[in-house]
TrEMBL record, chains A, B:
Name the record gives this protein: LacI family DNA-binding transcriptional regulator
Alphabetical list of PROSITE patterns matching this protein: HTH_LACI_2 (PS50932)
Species of provenance: Herbaspirillum lusitanum
Record flagged with keyword Transcription: yes
UniProt feature, compositional bias: Basic and acidic residues: 9-26
Amino acid sequence: MSQPQDSSDSLRADKPADEPSDEPRRRSGRKNAGGITLRDVAQLAGVAPITASRALNTPAAVSPKVLQKVKDAVERTGYVPNLLAGGLASNKSRLVAVVVPTVIGPVFQEIVHTLTETLAAAGYQVMLGQTGYENSREDALLEAIIGRRPDGVVLTGIMRSQQARKRLLSSGIPVVETWDLTPTPIDMLVGFSHENIGREVARYLHGKGRRAAAVLGGKDERSQRRMLAFAQEAAALGMTVDGAQVPMHGVSAPTTLGQGRKGLADLLQQQPNIDALFCSSDLLALGVTIEAQSRGIGIPGQLAVVGFGDLEFSRDLEPRLTSVRIDGTAIGQRAARFIIDRAAGLEIAEPIVDVGFSIVVRDSA
Amino acid sequence: MSQPQDSSDSLRADKPADEPSDEPRRRSGRKNAGGITLRDVAQLAGVAPITASRALNTPAAVSPKVLQKVKDAVERTGYVPNLLAGGLASNKSRLVAVVVPTVIGPVFQEIVHTLTETLAAAGYQVMLGQTGYENSREDALLEAIIGRRPDGVVLTGIMRSQQARKRLLSSGIPVVETWDLTPTPIDMLVGFSHENIGREVARYLHGKGRRAAAVLGGKDERSQRRMLAFAQEAAALGMTVDGAQVPMHGVSAPTTLGQGRKGLADLLQQQPNIDALFCSSDLLALGVTIEAQSRGIGIPGQLAVVGFGDLEFSRDLEPRLTSVRIDGTAIGQRAARFIIDRAAGLEIAEPIVDVGFSIVVRDSA
DNA sequence: CTGAAAGCGCTAACAA
DNA sequence: TTGTTAGCGCTTTCAG
């Protein structure tokens, strides 16, 4: 490959510093985009390294002439700043850790997507971490995260180990917890109340004249809380209540359509007369729909079904699925803003946000 | 908290500066897990920093006694190594960038999941990047990625801009492309042939006695190639071929169930006699199933349907969906191994891997 | 097996 | 506005 950028150098006319004077011992193996550093750029532009740095980071603080020279030099060398070095020197890594139980399954997709996008637009890069719903990996993961000195950590539906929480807190890294309304957040919080959801759904179904309620959900903690609140409220309203817990295959997997089918079968065996069912995910609800269909059970006629998550496909099902909608985009944006603001040194006036939820009423209930 | 180290600096007291108050100016605002550095640990353990470093990184290279002392010191101080600093010094960031069009949608979930998990187990952290199917963001994203000097980049279904490819190549960072079999990969490759899939599905349906083929797919490039190959092979086998292209709402979004419903409707209007349909995603196929059901079209009796992706739910649909399965886990593991091996300085014997695919035959076709 | 010295590439403090 | 100096926290190199 011919690289014709050897001695032409038509730009740096004033300071011929070709003198390889007392070359200090250089370290080996560089992976550095051609080995070009800020110093090379500065030299080519005929300015001090710090000036080149300013031209790139705070262009307003530099004369237009210098700015242009530096830009040219960057262009000609193909220089890409080493953000690791910059981060070390400035103590700002521009890295944000996002931790979820798993990226498999539709639940946290919207949040991860929004965070990645919003933070990227602000110059941050997202590091992804998966805990797998277990505590065991939390500690190792935390160590790996803190070691990178991120400018923020977003926790979604996890981090229960008390020790881990303490560790994070004492690291001084801004933390945003999401997907729940913890009574005692580590730092900042963007969430919603699982209990309120359960209660509201119970009231909604009761209001529709249903009297024999049932719930179907996985055994993750938040799902359980929705289910419990639903059951309690339904009972308080005078409804009968049955429930089935979906067996989670592997503690890190989300609920599945198959579990929905099986779940309804189990439920019907337990209590054939149920007329209202709250599923802790839309996938479960879809399974229930299919199973009901194959059994000739009419939805919503015989059985009203409410899902959770309002997945993209739910509006197009037959019948169209009524579901609880969580605005993952809003959560992601708010969380991103919290971290960006913190990094900018702003005071967060209200570090706890309840984004709420809504019941999207369609045909299935 | 008695810290018996009142400015005596027991370790480096060999240069008595004339002025006693020689304390060097310290930089401000540290976010450093309590501000504990390797030097603090080393001092507490009574060894040199480099020895403490060795105790942590290559425990076999220090005496058991020293190892214990350092471990104790780490324990007592709560020290967490600064991986940014380590990365800068050693030129190994232990960061791997994973780039996908979007994490929304089920397509790349398995790969991202596997990569994150496998790499984490090897001490690497995944940085997530989303291009949004557009080229526009590719350049900025690439700059952000290269700037972090990752030890590897995994590209999934993207990076078309020639300039971007060149940039990556010249950065010297190991690159693994996935989800396709490019004729001229940048570096390493783990993929499968979209053309072969199209052809095989056509043959399969022809073998089942179907003669009026149709395809339904999104307009992303690979989907198109599957569809085209399918159409060509079907025609070559003497089948009639119709096709419909799903309108993508926003170029970055994956195909949806709703599009499947609409797609079938359009297709039937075009050609009511089709008896075999290849959908470029399982979600599309599900939509087709539902639409067919509501129109009283029997599957597979009247219409055979084949999906793509073999999503988790496909096996539980009614009828159970026949689909093309891609082993995302295998792709992720292979890609991770490539990068880990490269980082270890190993020669990659065969840098191009075809993981193939399989047609999972169920009831729908 | 252990240590001193010298940076990795960049930016915060000061100064000019 | 620009430059000088001194690190950021760690690891490489080269000696003991």
